[in-house]
Write the structure tokens for this entry.
Amino acid sequence: MSKRSEIIDGRLASTARNGLVYTEVPGWIDLGHARGDDIKMLMAKIDTGESSGQECYDVTYAQSMSDPWNFVRIGKFIKW
């Protein structure tokens, strides 16, 4: 659950690593989830596998989140 204190000025969104901004069309955007780092890492793994020359290769994807104190962590892991 997000807090009011996490709302940042939209002009800072392009360089911010996390925070909440409000936009007219999609509404609230959580910058921590909207960065796209996970898909960039996944695509890099696929590119590495494709350029390896092997007949097949494994690609692993994981996504997780934790509370602010890292006491509770939950996530999903899949291997193709």
Q: What stands out?
A: The mean pLDDT is 89. Helices lie at 31-34, 37-51. The first strand starts at residue 20 and ends at 23. Strands lie at 20-23, 27-30, 60-66, 73-79.
